[in-house]
Design goal:
With 352 residues, the chain is α/β, with parallel strands linked by helices. It has two domains: 143 residues, Bacterial extracellular solute-binding protein, family 7 (D-Maltodextrin-Binding Protein, domain 2, 3-Layer(aba) Sandwich); 143 residues, D-Maltodextrin-Binding Protein, domain 2, CATH 3.40.190.170. The protein has twelve helices and eleven strands. β6, α5 and β7 form a beta-alpha-beta unit. It is found in: Periplasm. InterPro entries: DctP_fam, TRAP_DctP_sf. Keywords: Periplasm, Signal.
Length: 352
């Protein structure tokens, strides 16, 4: 017969063994290693991947003590289309990535307020700080099925084209120009151009085949798209405001984020938000300097429109804004409030 003492020892041993197993499991969970696959749709040598995405991934790894590794896949290497990035993240096909909501026209209409003509300054960092503030008020519900890490804008938008630079509004007439968003293509149409909407990866081929005569895009994207070879001139508007801009989010799959232990969630959270958004925008500013220098070194013409001609474009831009407000009203949204709050976000963040 088993003695009470023997039974107690066995029971105690079993309890200690179970406790040790739990401790090991807890330790394993605490030391959980996670690999996150983030995808984007441009060259790894372009500004945002170079000056934001790669440093952000390195910081996540460092801050997590090596427990989170972020792998970056450029040029849609994991599959899918640039226009479907949001759904790829939401559905878990990828763990995270870079999204241009405007690539799905009408799906995220409130984001378009930040993209309206002459809405933001030519500083990507300032524009991105404003984008994060605006996003908190208007877009977090729309993006509720992903984890938004940053909401940002690029730097100044430039007209790049074959042939000489734009000197007057009349020079836009008849040009086939690539536009990245509804608001940008509306403005190009007002200017007398034939706007052709397309994502950035399609732009170089469209130029080389003569599908377009040029398009609007940033300085920083120019080298990776070989615009020094495919175009001859680059024209900016006068003043501190950008001709157009584009709204982006850097986001991850919500279930993947929710599945992280709390201390690793804290690492993601600490590298998200206002600061991360400004960092992403600053990456574009850094790239703009490099891109402009590369275009100048190629011998291409760099130009800036006069104040008078810029004022004419601003008047047309105001028409685009008024029409956009009317569109939002028809959708049951308060377009006037969105424009007002977008402008306020730009003003407030500039003053900080």
């Amino acid at each position: 017969m088993t003695s009470f003492r023997t039974f107690t020892l066995k029971s105690t041993f079993s309890t200690l063994t179970a406790a040790a197993a739990l401790a090991v499991a807890a330790s394993t969970a605490a030391a959980q290693e996670v690999t996150l696959r983030f995808q984007h749709f441009v060259s790894p040598l372009s500004a945002n991947p170079t000056y934001f995405m790669a440093p952000w991934a390195e910081k996540i790894e460092k801050d997590s003590g090596g427990r989170i590794k972020v792998e970056l896949y450029p040029a849609m290497q994991l599959g899918g289309k640039a226009t479907s990035q949001y759904d790829l993240i939401r559905d878990g096909a990828i763990d995270g990535g870079w999204v241009i909501p405007g690539y799905q026209p009408g799906r995220f209409p409130e984001a378009e307020a930040m993209e309206l003509p002459f809405m933001v300054t030519k500083s990507g960092e300032e524009a991105s700080n404003a984008a994060w503030v605006y996003t908190q008020k208007y877009l977090m519900d729309d993006f509720a099925d992903v984890k938004v890490i940053a909401a940002h804008m690029h730097g100044r938008g430039i007209v790049h084209k074959k042939g000489g630079p734009i000197a007057t509004v009349a020079d836009f007439k008849g040009l086939k120009l690539r536009g990245p968003s509804r608001t940008a293509t509306r403005l190009l149409d007002k200017l007398g151009a034939t706007p052709i909407g397309m994502p950035v990866p399609a732009f170089p081929e469209a130029l080389s085949k003569g599908v377009v005569d040029g398009g609007v895009i940033t300085w920083e994207m120019s080298p990776s798209l070989k615009l020094d070879e495919l175009t001859d001139s680059h024209t900016d508007v006068a003043g501190e405001k950008s001709l157009y801009n584009l709204y982006f989010i850097w986001a991850m799959n919500k279930n993947v984020y929710d599945g992280l232990p709390d201390d690793l969630k804290a690492v993601i959270d600490a590298n998200s938000g206002f600061h991360a958004s400004g960092w992403a925008g600053h990456a574009h500013d850094t790239g703009d300097v490099v891109g402009r220098e590369k275009m100048a070194a190629s011998g291409n013409a760099l130009a800036e429109l006069s104040e008078e001609e810029t004022a004419k474009i601003r008047t047309l831009g105001d028409e685009v804004i008024a029409e956009w407000i009317a569109d939002m009203t028809a959708k049951g949204l308060d377009g006037e409030a969105m424009v007002r709050d977008a402008r306020a976000a730009v003003s407030v963040t500039r003053a900080q």
